[in-house]
Amino acid sequence: MRNFVKLQYVSILFITVLFISCKQSDGTTKEKETILKGSATILVDESIKPLIEDQIAVFQSDYKAKISLEAKSEKEVLRSFLNDTSQIAILPRTLNAEELKHFKILKIKPKITKIGTDAIAFISNKKSNDTLIALEDVIHFMQGKDQKSIKGLVFDNLNSSTVRYMTELAGIKEVPKKGIYSFKVNEDVVKFVSENDGMIGVVGLNWLYQPSAEIKNLIKDVHVLSVKAVDKNGFFAPTQNNLAEGAYPLARDLFIINCQGYNGLGMGFASFVAGEVGQRIVLKSGLLPVRVPGRKVVFKTKQTEKSK
């Protein structure tokens, strides 16, 4: 009798272990995602890729999280986002009325977190002695009007946020065919301008402060131009100080848009980037944080030195 009971116990234990093993092998016991652990995919506008790469690296080193980053043009990000390829996106603008309506129909209320301020920068070849440019001249060129000071405008991608920003500023629906050059990413723009005198490159400022290994040596061959706003006096460079004072005319805010609908990594990552550590990363990147992280000042006195 004892042997029979013992055999039953062993059989039940074996079946239980086998069941758990099968569940693990088919992924049904996958660890539940929380705000600080699990895995997620984040779509990001290519023009701010360097900053978000840094944020993800630090976030993953502090928490049990695995974040896959997909950098695309703004239109591609929104296409994937609206088709539910990913529920987290980072863009240099917030959602418009039509996009918000899309999520309202799905009964999803996007959580939008401002994380900093970037800018669109104009660059030229170092062979050009002119380091100033009037925004009005660029707008006129975008409208198809000849400008002696501009030979051509170079964009990363016709689907990019920089093209969308400049076409809206110029009040046009499509870029003119004459004098407009486009490639794929911001790195291509820096490379082309560094090799061609007379061209004006239009890039996300983040790439100039945090250049990739491929273009790091090319940055020295381009000027970052100071810009004069329309109907205003003075030329201003895209620096943190000028962004903070609202002097640089091509500033744009950055947003994390979370449509997960639950307390997942989207919420945790947004809180991290908007928090002190994340804002320090924004500050270090050369962009403008939403809030400047505090600094601890330690005053040393003779008494404290003696106590050591």
UniProtKB/TrEMBL annotation:
Query: What's one Pfam family here?
Result: PBP_like_2
Q: Which InterPro entries match?
A: PBP_domain, Phosphate_ABC_transporter
Asked if the keyword Signal belongs to this entry, the reply reads yes
Q: Does the keyword Signal apply?
A: yes
**Which Gene3D superfamilies does this entry report, sorted A to Z?**
Periplasmic binding protein-like II
Task: Report which superkingdom the organism of origin falls in.
Answer: Bacteria
Give residue ranges for domain PBP: 38-275
Which keywords annotate this record?
Signal
The protein in question is named: Phosphate ABC transporter substrate-binding protein (PhoT family)
